[in-house]
Specification:
31% of the residues lie in helices and 18% in strands. The relative contact order is 0.15. The strands form six sheets. It has a five-stranded parallel sheet, covered by helices on one side. A five-stranded parallel sheet has the order 8-17-9-10-13, covered by helices on one side. A four-stranded mixed sheet has the order 6-5-4-18, with no helix packed on it. The chain is globular and about 70 Å long. The chain contains 15 helices and 22 strands. It is of the alpha/beta class and 504 residues long.
Length: 504
Amino acid sequence: MRIPRCSGMEKISVAVIGAGAGGICMGVGLRKAGVERFTIYEQSSGVGGTWWDNVYPGAEVDTPQPFYAFSFNIFDFSRTHVKQAELLAYLENTADKFHLRDNLRLNCRVKRVEWDPDECSYLVSAEDGSSEKYDVVVSCVGLLNNPRYPDWPGLSEFSGVKFHSARWNYDCDITDKVVAVVGTGSTAAQIVPAIAPDVKQLYVYQRQPGWVVPKGERIYDATERARLLDPRLRWLTWWRQYLDYEKRLRSAGVEGTPGNVRATEACLKYIDTVFADRPDLAKAVTPQYPFGGKRPVQDSNYYPALLRDNVELIPHAVTRVTPTGLVDDTGTERQVDVLVMCTGFTAPEFLATLDVVGRDGRTLREYWSGNPHALLGMMVPNFPNFYMLYGPNTNGAPIMFLHERQAEFVLGNLARMAKKSIPALEVRKDVTDRFNSILDKRLSRKVTTQYHVHNYAFSESGREVIGWGEGMSVYWLLMRALRPVACQAIVGNVKKSEQVAHAA
């Protein structure tokens, strides 16, 4: 991560909302840049974000090491794809190594962020009644922090145990119970093989199948672990992974491209291999849309788990809940003891749990009107000195890479503010609108927007607000190219004619 240092940065105060990977990355950047006053607010009682909340059985990352790690903190990981507990330990290690504990406010949920035009600052208010002013606010609340609960009729009357996968109830002993897992996305694909050996019967409800790619996870041997602790060899491995991801990310989501065809063929071959003796299951798990219609599931154990005698795939959506079971769209009811809802998150509703008030008194949700959009997913017109890490249309690159690039963007603007004594920077609306217009045209080529597939990519307006789709290099270059020209200085509610290009 490139860290700018400029006299005056130490005087800028920053509020970081969220202590997940993004908030930790931002905190490290602020520490290295010499910013003396910054606070990382976290609603949970520990750091880690989604890796603190998602403790369900089988939880692990999809991205291999060292790509799912910060460039500035080498760690002795035990396997290619890190499990939840080890990754949480890594994030805690990072927070400790870079002395972020003193800057943390745990068990403190931010509920409102409001711009003060007279002081060119934000008033950050928490649920505990406390409030404090900061020059800059960086939201790192992420996409997967607010569970989406289904609206099935009768759900509240269910007499068994029910919970969302992101709020796993370990007080519930599922041993020898009849369990229903609703959903077949990445979370469910990890849970099913993890709990199948322990339950009496497992029903897996599938509204629509997704493409599944075997992950190829494995434990490192001693030689591999030593190699990844060597900075030079680790960097070489990182670059190999970068080039591999770049090749796949840019083409796999467009129907008919070589990458898309290869991915489809590989998935179909995997289905044929696992379900050679079960054509009924092979048919049920094969999507009727091209590869890329929704986020592919990367898992090597999910398909084999469906072959177990005590596991039954129900290729139908749940329509209602009775006091003792679930009813699918064929009208069939199945009795269950435990209901696990793998029904995702309110990802398209960015900052759903937080009110951000801009220069004209409107909240960010009011400004968006159901259509979240930003420049590079980070800055929104009318909201000076407000940044988002992992905001709209930034999903599509390994998250640690993305966090570091976005933290660099924020730090670059802080350095510019300090160097030129600019109280606030706001992104230009014309640049933001043009950027999103081009992005929408590019996204219209994707399978996601061309097929009616159930996924979390779309906002209320019908626009895809999650995906990026142009690869890491394009995003990286655009961040470096647009940052010097896309913002304008703000004093109170008045825009100065001085552009960032002149202030750089």
